[in-house]
Amino acid sequence: MRIWWLLSVLVCGMLCAQANDSYVVGESGRVQRMAGEHPTVRLVREWVKVDVYPDYYEVAVQFVFRNDGPATTVQMGFPERGAGDINAQRLTRETGFRHFRTWVDGTVVTAERLPAAIPDEDTTYRTFWVKTVAFAQGQTRTVRVEYRSPIHADSMGDRWASYDFTGGNWAGSVDESSLRVIMHLPGAYLINPGMPMTQQKNQFSTRWTNWQAETGFTIGFLPTRADAYAVRTIPDAPFTGFARYRHMLVMPGKGEDPIAIPPAIRKGETLFLNLHALAEHMQSVARRTDGPRDDAPTLRWDPKTNRATFSLGLLAVDFTLQEPVMQAGGRAVPLPASPFLSTPMSMYGERVSHLFVPLRPLIEELGGAVVTVNTEERWVLMQLPPWPDENQ
Asked: Are the C-beta atoms of 23 and 39 separated by less than 8 Å?
């Protein structure tokens, strides 16, 4: 048996994850990741840059390794794997990404593509691109990897690019990891970075220090309306549909046909909230935090009268299409604009329409609050209404 210590950066064929560094064992020409750390070779720092386009994304990664022990030779592997609606047998033999290059200290090196040791199911494949790197005692070496991968997509319309940090099996901890994602998406998109990241126009970034480099990153995006806003909520529940896409991106150029019904829309001076999405979001929060509740919010729509009723506990709020007033607790509350149905858009293969109502009057009537409206980055932060038993 030969032992291979591998730098693992997973690249996709169709649906896959990326990982930056692991250590694996090889047997009979096959490889797989192992637990434990390399005894002397440490990943000191890494820089990851991801450029996302509508149909593909390009990743450029630079790693700095240092050998804190005697001279040694290691084999670094760049895993490529995929899953989903793919021909796994073919992709085991043929690469699924569009190009792959790697360098050591600025010199291009050749990597051999080897299959993984444990066969996966028919809908998955896994291989490694392996290169040999020699270290003198105390030597520091720079490794660079670049690749282009098709955008991952599913049957529900979601698209994403991903990268996994898996540096825990190199010696010690990683001093610093930085991640910068640049979105090249003409048109309007809802963006979900999947983790807290700083946004500056079309760029998202974050960094870690003195850590094990063990986390997954996925940035998702969906084309939406040009007047859309993202919604962030307090309490935060990022994995529900209403608040999952927490960022908006609007770039020059002709965009794709909208897929996503947005959580909010701005018309003139009024910000409108997707009432269907609010109800579904709060119901999801109730299920996740307390289990099924009888007082979870409900939304009823009467197509004969064009009237919607949103209920939260004993409080019911009524809206009627094209009427700038809402009925709440027996009171008529003036609205800055009339509710409207969204223009039908293709959502997961279906034509749907959602009701949009003025955001601030509804949230404040329910006991919540609008905390921030960011008109430049197109998002609103709101305090979710408390549950009915908190009002008693």
From this structure: no
Domain boundary assignment for the chain: 2-222, 227-390
Tell me: domain 227-390, CATH 3.40.630.30, correct? no
Q: Kindly provide the b/e burial profile for residues 267-289, where b requires at least 16 CB atoms within 10 angstroms of the residue's own CB.
A: eeebbbbbbbbbbbbbbbbbeee
Cα–Cα distance measured from residue 213 to residue 323, given in angstroms and rounded to the nearest whole number: 54
- H-run or E-run covering 363: helix 359-365
pLDDT digits (tens, 9 = 90+) for 280-314: 888 777 666 555 555 678 899 998 999 999 998 88
Nearest by Cα to 155 from 84, 238, 96: 84
- Which CATH number, 2.60.40.3680, 3.40.1710.10, 3.30.360.10, 2.60.40.10, labels domain 2-222? 2.60.40.3680
List of residues 6+ apart from 284 with CB closer than 8 A: 237, 240, 241, 242
The CA radius of gyration of the chain, in Å to the nearest whole number, is: 25
pLDDT score of 346: 54
Q: Which of 111, 104, 134, 215 is nearest to 167 (CA)?
A: 215
More confident residue, 347 or 133: 133
For residue 280, the surrounding DSSP H or E stretch is helix 275-290
What's the rounded Cα separation, in Å, for the pair 354 and 370? 21
Burial of 57-93, coded b for 16+ CB within 10 Å and e otherwise, reads bbbebbbbbbbeeeebebbbbbbbbbbbebbbeebbe
Structure tokens at 146: 């670049």
pTM flag (> 0.70): yes
Query: How far from 367 is each of 105, 360, 388, CA to CA, in Å?
Result: 60, 11, 10
* Nearest partner of 114 among 32, 33, 23, 30, judged by Cα: 30
Q: Which of 139-153, 160-174, 190-204 has the lowest mean pLDDT?
A: 160-174
The four Cα atoms 281, 334, 329, 302 give a dihedral, to 10 degrees, of -60
Contact 9, 21 (CB under 8 A): yes
The H helix count followed by the E strand count for the chain is 4, 33
For the chain, the first-to-last Cα distance in angstroms comes to 68
Q: Tokens 């569009």 label which residue?
A: 98
Question: 258 or 65: whose pLDDT is higher?
Answer: 65
Q: Which residues in 237-264 are b (16+ Cβ under 10 Å) and which e?
A: bbebebbbbbbbbbeeeebeebbbbbbb
Q: Tokens for 237?
A: 């529940």
